[in-house]
Design goal:
With 307 residues, the protein is α/β, with parallel strands linked by helices. It is built from nine helices and 16 strands. The chain is globular and about 60 Å long. The two termini are 14 Å apart. The chain binds NADP nicotinamide-adenine-dinucleotide phosphate. This is NADP-dependent oxidoreductase. It holds the Pfam family ADH_zinc_N_2.
């Protein structure tokens, strides 16, 4: 039996509740873990609201919130390769087990060992934000010296994109509100405050010839405002808004496999993907953790330390 936080039906924050549940039984290709740290993401409240039915896993209510976690393997389901009981691991809960809980099941092909030297807290932030940043930049494939605009640079994915882009020797301009200026400039971003500046005019002044690529983390209407700053609309990659295709851009192609997780972990160990973890909440404080992300103006990554 383990304590968990989730929702009894689809809806707003009012449907959230704490409850106890029996430890999930790992099915084929799943591992049961004791959760150490769970990452908090915008996707979590979108799932609670019932806006992403394909990712719900079809489990009965109450459902547990959370898509990513780091912890220790307690048991293996059938057909699990490369993981053992007792391994420290991190990965995706893709079958609806939820991660804001003392125990959960992760999908084994979407789970990797935590390498020595990497903390569970950092590892827990890599499946969603870390690998998304890697995938977005891979998709753009820009050479050193190219220019990139990161729209929404101060959040979980944005700061990871900025760090990775700087490591690839790209020239990064990022947008955000005033509180995001300092963390963005620390990682080498030339910052535009969208609350006080004309974003298009300010970005054009910094990069007069137009950008070689844009990673959008905000969505419309901001996406449509900044998209013309790209020299070629095909180099606009959106992470949250599928309507990017309507303006000639592309939605990010995600790789959720173990190999990509291991790659993100290596980048984190090298300090390239070091996430800015701005808040660590106990499980009892999960409502505050998710509320911080749900307000849409998060700084860096928020996590829940379960054990
Ligand atoms: N496809 C996938 O697999 C995948 C994976 C991860 C995330 N996502 C999606 O990607 C999006 C970003 O995720 P995230 O984890 O980085 O979210 P986040 O941590 O909440 O960050 C979003 C950032 O955007 C900033 N922002 C809001 N309005 C803005 C505007 N008009 N202009 C510039 N910045 C603005 C926010 O703060 P300020 O307004 O204070 O600057 C915040 O820092 C979400 O929609 C999420 O669902 C998708």
């Amino acid at each position: 039996m383990g304590h968990a936080w989730g929702f009894g039906r689809h809806g707003g924050p009012e449907v959230q509740e704490f409850f106890d549940r029996p430890d999930p039984v790992p099915g084929r290709g799943e591992v049961l873990i004791r959760v150490d740290v769970a990452g908090v993401n915008p996707l979590d409240h979108l799932l609670r609201a019932g806006l992403v039915p394909g990712l719900d896993g079809g489990r009965p209510f109450p459902r547990v919130l959370g898509m990513e976690a780091a912890g220790t393997v307690l048991a293996l389901g059938e057909d699990v390769d490369g993981l053992e009981v007792g391994d420290p691991v991190f990965g995706f809960a893709l079958t609806g087990g939820g991660t804001y809980a003392e125990t959960t099941v992760l999908s084994a092909p979407n789970t990797a060992r935590i390498p020595a030297g990497l903390s569970a807290t950092v590892a827990a932030t890599l499946p969603v934000a870390g690998t998304t940043a890697v995938d977005a930049l891979d998709q753009l494939g820009l050479p050193a010296g190219a220019t990139i605009l990161v729209n929404g640079v101060g959040g979980g994915v944005g700061l990871a994109v900025a760090r990775l882009a700087a490591a690839r020797e790209l020239h990064v301009v990022g947008t955000g509100s005033a509180a995001k200026r300092e963390p963005a400039e620390t990682v080498g971003v030339r910052f535009v405050d969208y609350t006080t500046e004309d974003v298009v005019a300010a970005a054009r002044e910094l990069v007069p010839g137009g950008f070689d690529g844009i990673v959008d983390l905000v969505g419309d209407p901001s996406l449509r405002t900044v998209a013309p700053l790209a020299r070629d609309p095909r180099t606009v990659v959106a992470v949250g808004d599928q309507s990017v295709a309507d303006i000639g851009g592309r939605f990010v192609e995600r790789r959720l496999d173990r190999e990509n997780l291991e790659r993100a972990a290596r980048l984190a160990l090298d300090g390239v993907l070091a996430p800015a973890i701005t808040a660590v909440h106990p499980l009892s404080d999960a409502p505050a953790a998710l509320a911080t992300v749900e307000n849409g103006h998060t700084s860096g990554k928020v996590v829940i330390k379960v054990t």
